[in-house]
Write a structure and sequence with these properties.
Elements (H helix, E strand, L loop, with lengths): L1 H10 L5 E5 L5 E6 L3 E6 L4 E7 L26 E2 L25 E7 L2 E9 L2 H6 L4 E9 L3 E9 L5 E3 L1 E3 L2 E3 L6 E4 L5 E4 L5 E4 L11 E5 L6 E5 L4 E8 L3 E6 L1 H7 L11 E8 L5 E3 L4 E10 L1
Antiparallel strand pairs: 1-2, 2-3, 3-4, 5-11, 6-7, 7-8, 8-9, 9-22, 10-21, 11-20, 12-20, 13-17, 14-15, 14-16, 16-19, 17-18, 18-22, 19-20
The structure holds 6-O-phosphono-beta-D-glucopyranose.
Length: about 300
């Protein structure tokens, strides 16, 4: 526990921010602020819980999730970087990059009337260079208040430009996906990953999913509103610095095929991911910085 004790004496705020051993013995930051509570694992800089005062949890977490240093956590907000999905050049490289399975040390913790701000950092190392030979510094900032505000900053520390993809792979908790509508993407082009990556156009109006869905919406700076009829609430995902929006639900068969996801959990989640992926891959000049933010609020 000495690591946790040291972190607590450096970053803990009595009654508000506590660092402890979470599931699987992984280090966790617990926030209990007047406006909201949250949990963040240093493993993957992973927000696993966010609940504004008087609300149900906003993020879905699978009861089957592993909490294993070598595996990604299933649910919450996995941080995806520096590639999205399978690595195009190396099929053996981990799906969705290495950020979600790497420990991000705490950089700072601060509190204000607005909420609690936790900053975590990840820099290139021998381990990251083995799978991605570039120099970078990434900072993930989580602000826990009336809304959950997340910011992913990447600085190119290399001497030449770098290309990368990223996502804040947000698993929203919904009462029943079959009674949930998604608004804000009408007229946008998407890559349909469950139909041979066919390019399609989202028809006008809000839509409801009716089967396995895995779509990368391109050129979408849009705010997405999720109307969760079963819980009588709306979740609003707004963002900056993000050109792609991924909408994902595994539905029945894929849920059964995933070992870290319950067979019956799919009706209770919807991923609306704030991303730069596919055609929207980022190019960052040497020394330059890119900032992507995502805010999740109960509407
Ligand atoms: C989504 C992808 O973002 O993540 C899907 O678009 C993928 O293709 C899903 O299945 C979950 O990925 P993983 O690696 O966490 O099982």
């Amino acid at each position: 526990m000495s690591n946790v004790n040291e972190l607590n004496s450096k970053f803990g705020v009595p009654g508000v921010v506590t660092i402890d051993e979470g599931k699987g013995g992984l280090t966790r930051v617990r926030v209990t602020a007047p406006a909201a509570e949250a949990e963040i694992y240093l493993h993957g800089a992973h927000v696993t819980h966010y609940k504004p005062q008087g609300q149900k949890p906003v993020l879905f977490m699978s009861a089957e999730s592993l909490f294993d240093p070598a595996k990604a956590i299933r649910g919450g907000v996995p941080v995806i970087f520096p590639w999205f999905g399978p690595n195009a050049n190396d099929p053996k490289a981990p799906q969705h990059g290495f950020a979600r399975t790497t420990v991000w040390p705490i950089r700072s913790v601060s509190t204000s009337d607005h909420g609690v701000v936790i900053t975590l950092g990840l820099a290139s190392s021998d381990a990251t260079r083995k799978v991605w030979p570039h120099e970078f510094e990434a900072t993930f900032t989580v602000s826990v208040g009336k809304a959950l505000e997340m910011s992913m900053d990447v600085v190119n520390k290399s001497t030449r430009e770098i290309f990368f993809e990223e996502a804040l792979h947000t698993y929203l908790a919904v009462g029943d996906i079959r009674r949930t509508t998604i608004d804000g993407l009408a007229g946008r082009t998407f890559i349909d990953k469950v139909d041979n990556k066919a390019r399609k156009t989202q028809p006008p109006g809000a839509f409801t999913l009716s089967g396995e869905t895995d779509r990368v919406y391109l050129n979408t700076p849009d705010t997405v509103t999720v109307d969760d009829a079963a819980n009588s609430r709306r979740l609003v995902v707004s963002k900056t610095g993000s050109a792609s929006t991924v909408v994902w639900n595994p539905w029945t068969d894929k849920a059964k095929a995933m070992s870290d996801f319950g067979d019956d959990e799919w009706p209770h989640m919807l991923c609306v991911e704030t991303a730069n992926a596919g055609d929207n891959v980022l190019t960052l000049a040497a020394g330059a910085k890119h900032v992507m933010t995502a805010t999740v609020a109960v509407g």
